[in-house]
Queue: 2 jobs
Job 1
Amino acid sequence: MPKHKTKSDLPQKPCVLCSRPFTWRRKWARVWDEVKYCSDRCRSDARRQTIGHEQQSPQTTGISRGQTSR
């Protein structure tokens, strides 16, 4: 009978957002290379941050509110 793997034997990698290490899960077996975040919270926070940056793009182009580019 084969030995069971303990949690410490499973691969780990750090979360892109919070840098906490998280462990491989069976449901991630096919997409382990694509998994970036340790939780739904980190994934949704990352989306909020990217959406916030997209909304600020007119300010970074030098056009303030109320002005139009000519």
Job 2
Amino acid sequence: MGELPNMQGAYNEIKNEDVNIIGIVEDGKDNEKSVKKILKENNITYTNIIPDEKLWDDLVSLVGAFPTSILVNDKGEILKVKLKNNAESIIEIPVLKKEEILDIFNKNRK
């Protein structure tokens, strides 16, 4: 949750551009009321979604570290992935093929 204010600040700076921020609340399925309360209390105005089963299976279940940021262009191509796999380590992944990114996610799940 510590990244919420930073993400909101970034959103405030770019919200009038052709860029967007979308949060995925990985543990929100069973905590929807709590999630909405936390977002409201922290004045979070960018879109946050609770993943359905497909999004969970296709993306969220593959992410081994939170928070993870994925930069995607308007063609849906992944440009950069930044994931935090422990309190002191941040991994930045440049433009890679989907399979290479999934491989990195899977290695960091262990």
